[in-house]
Amino acid sequence: MSEPGVASGAPVRDGGAVKAVILARGLGTRMRRADAETALDPAQAAVAETGVKGMIPVGRPFLDYALSALADAGFREACLVIGPEHDAVREYYTRTVTPRRLRIDFAIQERPLGTADAVLAAESFAGGQPFLVVNSDNYYPVPTLAAVRVLRAPALPGFDRDALVRDGNVSPERIRSYALLVVAPDGSLRRVIEKPDDATLRALGDTPLVSMNCWLLSPDIFDACRRIAPSARGELELPHAVQWLIDERGARFTVLPARAPVLDLSSRSDIPEVAARLAGVEVAL
Question: What is the pTM of this model?
Fold first, then answer.
């Protein structure tokens, strides 16, 4: 998978964040859904039935690739936010493999109440330091992770829509279910627009930047996560907490434009292509 360069931003003097939180608690509803058109091997099918997307074998568990990319980008500590029923994840990273480049911690999100609630579960792990938040079912390009890591929190990459479609496994239709970013002239985030309609897409122009739920956050996010109300889906959403910080506290989130692909392992139909794209990627935990 090609990893085109990204624009650079103002680096922090201390060398950047070293902690990353991986949201791995989701129900995996789309992954559990039967798909007669996608041929999976027995091991892939068995894990897909559990909905734990990060553990789906694509050569080796998908999370291995994601964690290796974080280590390549300079992160040294990772916290997997899992459910109390996800013993297989904990067992794998404490007994089956022994990570040497990353210290792996775990945080329990008792119920799947949304991404902001999942971030709150990792508050102790953050320990008052800046930290990255990423999805467990996305493989982010190392140059983008490395560039974001050394920015002053809060910040996020804004992914080029054409690059996501052209160089990754994201279809134009799927982009419509993602959040788009309204960026101010000074390069800061003004608004996060989730699932934009046609009129909004036209108003944003030809190349709006896309959020792939990759955030470099400061500890202020925890207060915001506690203050927001549940969304229409009944969940506490991380983008809403980000918007609360912008609107209520005047927080300035630097947006780093990234012309790079992200692999998305959301459904069973994604597994064969993701496996093929990761076939030549070296993993070192």
Answer: 0.90
